[in-house]
Predict the structure.
Amino acid sequence: MTPPEILIKVTDLVFGYPGRPLVIDGLDFELGSDELVGLTGHNGCGKTTLLEIIMGLRKPQAGTVEILGKKCTEEKHFRPLRPKMGFVFQDANDQLFCPTVADDLAFGPLNLGASRQEADQVAQKVLDNLGLPDFGPRVTYDLSGGEKKLVALGTALALSPRLLILDEPTNFLDREAVARLEEILRQLQLPGVIVSHDVGFLDKMVKRRYWLEKGRLTAV
Amino acid sequence: MSALGGTVNFLSRTDPRLKVLILVLWSFLLAFVQSRAAAWVGLVGSGVLYAFSGPQSLIKGLSRLLAINSFLIFIWLTLPFSFSTPGTEIYRLGWLALTQEGLDFSLILSLKALAITLGALAITSSSGVFELLAGAKGLGAPEKLVALCQLMTRYISVIGQQYARSRQAMRVRGFQPRTNLHTLRSYANLAGILLVRGLDRAERVRSAMLCRGYNGRFWAKTDFRLKFLDLGLAYLTLALGLWVTILDAA
């Protein structure tokens, strides 16, 4: 077996919003290709901020971010790597901006250079895997909260990412929808980071859990 | 069916590009019509198009037309009396003179307005917003403009939900709109928070798009092919358009 690759490596990260104490203060984090980890912490402790820094959506004041072995400091470094990190936003409404589910799922592959036909095929495959085979023509804002969340996950999966980054995937989901999500994630077997307050869900899904407090991570 | 999905009928199965073209040309043609006969034919033509746009009930169509009628009332209240100097007077009430020319002009204006509205209703009610936008793009409309309309259509309901939630939150805390400064200030706060949230949302949507490799291109389906059915619609509107033009020129 090949040794696990380091997918994300973050060292000495510092970040603060203007006029407020630092949210990230000398943080180190590493994600190997063989692990799915959980990230918890109090409201406003900087979990989402950390994810945004990893995705290159926010610039840290200090520290380094390495994605798939490449050091990333500028937008142009992050750009080709972002689709490899399937990032699913907290609010599915932010993620789903296209008229129909099929359009939304095709958006990523089209950006990556797929033809319309290939993109449509990818979209259908993702829908089949999610157990929503007939959802293609559905209008995105007519979906229920749980359906939206699954489709939002689908938009990330359509990119065939190397890892997943999920921000509060179980928020506003009922128990049935959570069970479905668990099953899908288990089948995918992708490494990644899950931010969640739902300790029960995390215990089932991840081997390791981190606690973010005072700008640093501690293993739980 | 959903309001955006449209129903299945003759018009809904035709090429959206053709429909956008018809919508624009037919509306402009009718707007330039000057004769009463041509305006009548225009209204009949729009009626035919409307009939092809599916099994909508007459009442629904008429109620939609009522909206435009509320504007027409003002035309009928003012225009017939505005031709007093050169017109043929048919009735006089003090200094108000009702003229034949004024009446004719009001009638033509009303017919044109109704015809354009009915024609637009026929096209828009038989196709989804996104389909028409894709059609417009297929005709060479700017990509950014199309994307803007697309995003607006998508997020107007999200903003609407946010508005409804905020209104509820105000109501459960005992807010009752009155004619006072408190009410005005509360509404201003509501409008403000909607704008701020809208901006936040826009930034998050952009981030989410960046995460999926967005590079400035929007992808709308534009692989249309003209079918036999489209030819039928094209000939039909062409015939109607010619009829209107010939009548108007005569």
Notes: The longest helix of chain B spans residues 181-211. Chain B has two domains: 11-136+225-249, 142-211.
